[in-house]
Amino acid sequence: MAFPRKKPVILIRWVWAQNVVFEFELIKSLLPRFEYVTMDTEFPGLVFQSPSVRERNQPLARYKVLKLNVDALKLIQLGLILCDADGNLPHLGTNCRYVWEFNFSDFDVSSNLHDPSAISMLKEKGIDFERNKREGISSLLFGQLMFSSGLVGNRRMHWVNFHSSYDFGFLVKILTHARLPDDLSNFVGLVTALFGTSEFDEKYIRGSREMRRDFSEMQRANI
Question: Do 10 and 44 touch, CB atoms closer than 8 A?
Fold first, then answer.
């Protein structure tokens, strides 16, 4: 009788300031094979909301709110998954499979803007804000290492995410060391330049293509 294959154990590689250079070098060594990336960000909630349902359905209004939030807030964590074309995670020569969790030092819950309910939820999930401040990675260093790793500006990479507008927004902010562009088309251009044209969002199955579609609709409507 054939027995089902045992699923491999998936372990999180926790990344802090002390090991961030090593982990990015490890990721860089994996990229020739593992060219599919999934990410997820944790940030301190949303402090700006669309004032009406009608505006939430308008691309320009949605981007305006996204920009207000991303410009005002600081990233707390970023999860990163690499896999190959067959969906296999890196095993690093072990019997396990690995994913990454990057912890940032920029956010200070006592002084930075945040949604209290979001902070409570993140605490329940196990985020230690004091440890992040002491041992976390500065977003400036993270951006530099991400550029040198080959994750961005690499047309061979494929980004597969879920509801990823804010994820890309925070990464664009970190990688450019600047506020997001005022214009939606310039933001889409930066996403394309940094992450290529192969992005897919599992919520929409169109990723940044949804933003491009929105912009095309605006152009046709002369908005």
Answer: no
